[in-house]
Write a structure and sequence with these properties.
Two copies of one chain form a homodimer. Chain A is about 45% helix and about 20% strand. By secondary structure, chain A is an alpha/beta fold. In chain A, the strands form two sheets. The first copy, chain A, has a seven-stranded mixed beta sheet. The radius of gyration of chain A is 20 Å and the shape is elongated. At the A-B interface, helix 1, helix 5, strand 10 and helix 9 of A face helix 1, helix 5, strand 10 and helix 9 of B.
Chain lengths: ~210, ~210
């Protein structure tokens, strides 16, 4: 089934809600409750939940656990992919500590940096290696994905190095557009764009 | 002019490209060059640039500097908004170091944490205050925006505190859906959703 980015995005937000509900031992949820929490339209929620083949629907609402498992199955949380984090600065460390990535199918194997002071450090049971070790480790561990968290001015240089090391998929957190060959895919996080949408939204509100 | 989130997002990516070009002293750019870097359609780029009223268009392409300034004007980069970062962990520190936020209209005034070991630290000329100081400082500095970078389990509790302190806009990096009153707006960063789109995209490629 082909699910659009927008729907994937909302299903992930629903999944966050279900996780919170199960933490609080709440067994059932209704679509208006979900809609209300996200301040979106109820009909939108019901439409999205149809991708889950009405999993868990009953008279008193939806069974939270069934919906949660159905989202995990539909979006393929269990098909784990291995990745490296390149750049062991604050952002790289923050993402390494984001345990949730693992439950969403992304398994961080190791970090890389060119700062010898950081090499050998261990964060969340993951080791920081010198960047020079990456080509060999990528090959031996068969890793084709990397999360790029280096400063903007090094982003292209490091990308060229990753591409030469056989990396095929890059999740780019640097505010720079990377030049890559046709067979390499880049997914730009674009924090700046989100920053603008955040501030722009607030300006719109102010004008009301 | 009302510009959709998707267009804002792309204009910000174009802005990244223009910044890189100017760093390298390249004066002109064509829409196919932009399209090629982002692996999107040339017609899409030309359509987006129309929002800038054909700024800088000439025979040899577009003047990079004119386009860049036009994006800044159109998206209101110069209307600076003050914000606090709440949670001085790795993610909070990473965002504090993201100097680019300032040029995109977001001015980080200070950080807050409940860890006394972090209080008094200075990052990028910004000080970490104890969270108990937030209500007073928000009022005196007239700050209504906060970036939330605390762990998931504290997210709701801290949000309630922010709302009671007069915060009206929250950029939420915690993987949790926050309950807020009608007059408070939350913008969810949803790194988990992006993570899934990143891995899902790669799975699609693998199936080709």
């Amino acid at each position: 089934m082909d699910i659009s980015d927008k729907v994937i995005n909302r299903l992930t937000l629903y999944h966050c809600i279900f996780t919170d509900y199960l933490d609080k031992d709440i067994e059932f949820i209704s679509s208006p409750q979900i809609a209300n929490l996200l301040k979106i339209d109820d009909s939108q929620v019901r439409k999205d939940l149809k991708y889950l083949n009405n999993a868990g629907k009953c008279r008193v609402g939806y069974k939270v656990n069934d919906l949660k498992e159905s989202i995990e199955k539909t979006l393929g949380f269990q098909n784990t992919k291995d990745t490296f984090i390149v750049g062991a600065g604050n952002l790289g460390l923050a993402l390494t500590k984001y345990d949730d990535f693992a439950s969403y199918g992304l398994n961080i194997l190791a970090l890389f940096d060119n700062d010898s002071l950081k090499v050998g450090m261990s964060i969340n049971d993951k080791t920081v290696f010198h960047i020079s070790k990456l080509p060999d480790l990528a090959k031996r561990l068969n890793v084709e994905m990397a999360i790029l968290t280096v400063p903007r001015k090094y982003a292209q240089e490091v990308t060229d190095f990753l591409v030469n090391s056989g990396i095929k998929h890059i999740w780019n957190f640097a505010p720079s557009i990377l030049k890559v060959p046709e067979n390499v895919k880049v997914w730009n996080e674009n924090l700046m764009g989100n920053c603008l949408q955040f501030t722009a939204r607030n300006k719109k509100e102010d004008n009301k």
